[in-house]
Amino acid sequence: MAESRHYISGADGSIPGIGGCPFDMDRLQRDYVSGGLTPTKIINFGGKEGGLETDISMELTPLDACTGEQILDVLGCSGFYETSTLNFRISNLHKPGSARASDVWVAIPDNIVVPKLVQKLHQGAIDKIRISSLAYLDKGAKDQPRIVQSAEYTTCFVKFVDPLSYGLLSVFSFSFVKVKITQVDIKQISESGTNGESGRYVYEFDYNQASGGTGA
C-alpha cells in the first residue's frame, strides 16, 4: 500500500481538515466563544521594524526574548519532529535518514494580523515566530502569568492561511529553518511562599546546517 504521509506539509491522509488542518475547529470555536476555553499559549510575530503587529499586550514574566508585547492567544498548536531509525530491536541503532520537522499549525482568534499573514504568503519569510506556554507561578505585587516554555522559530515561511472557514477563528501554518526550545523547570515546593526555579534547558536545531546543540 502506498504511504499517504507527506513529511513536507506535516499532514497525512487521515486528517479530515481543510488544507490538512489538524484541529477540531468547531469545538475550539464553541469553547472559546462560550468562555469554556482559557488559552495557555501565546504567539508573537517578532522580527524587524514593520513586522506583524497585533496591538494586544499583556503583563507577564518574560522568558528571554519572549514577552507579552504584540501577542495573541493560541487556541490550538500542532507540530512534530522526527527522523528515520532502524527497528528498535536491532542492537546497532542508527539514523540512516535526515531529521525532519513538520509545518507548525496554529489556531488564533481573528485579528488585524490575519491579512498580514495572507500578505506574507506572497512576500517572503517572517524573521521570528515565538510560541510560549504560560503558568501562574509567580508571587509578587501582581498576580500574573509566567512564560515557562518558549519555541522560537527562525526564518518562517507562511504556507497556508484560512481566515474564512471558521467564523471568529483563523488557522495558518508555517515552515521554518531553525527552532530553539527553552524550558524552565519549576520546583514543586514552596520557598517562603514562592515556587523556585531550578534551572532551564535549551535545545536548538538548524535544519539548513543539519546541526543542533544544547545550552542553559
Question: How would you describe what is shown here?
Answer:
The protein is mostly beta strands and 216 residues long. Helices cover 8% and strands 43% of the residues. The protein is built from two helices and twelve strands. It has helices at 25-34, 113-120; strands spanning 41-46, 71-74, 76-78, 81-82, 100-101, 104-109, 126-135, 146-166, 169-175, 178-191, 194-206, 211-215. Strands 1, 2, 3, 6, 7, 8, 9, 10, 11 and 12 form a ten-stranded antiparallel β-sheet that branches. A two-stranded antiparallel sheet has the order 4-5. A hairpin with a 2-residue loop joins β10 (178-191) and β11. The protein starts with 24 loop residues before the first helix and ends with a strand. Residues 1-15 have low confidence and may be disordered.
Strand content: 35-45%
SS content category: mainly beta
Mean pLDDT: 82
Say what oligomer this is.
single chain
Question: Which key phrases capture this entry?
Answer:
12 strands; single chain; mainly beta; 216 residues; two-stranded antiparallel ribbon; 8% helix; ten-stranded antiparallel beta sheet
Q: What would you say about this model in short?
A:
With 216 residues, the chain is mainly beta.
Write the layout of secondary structure elements.
Elements (H helix, E strand, L loop, with lengths): L24 H10 L6 E6 L24 E4 L1 E3 L2 E2 L17 E2 L2 E6 L3 H8 L5 E10 L10 E21 L2 E7 L2 E14 L2 E13 L4 E5 L1
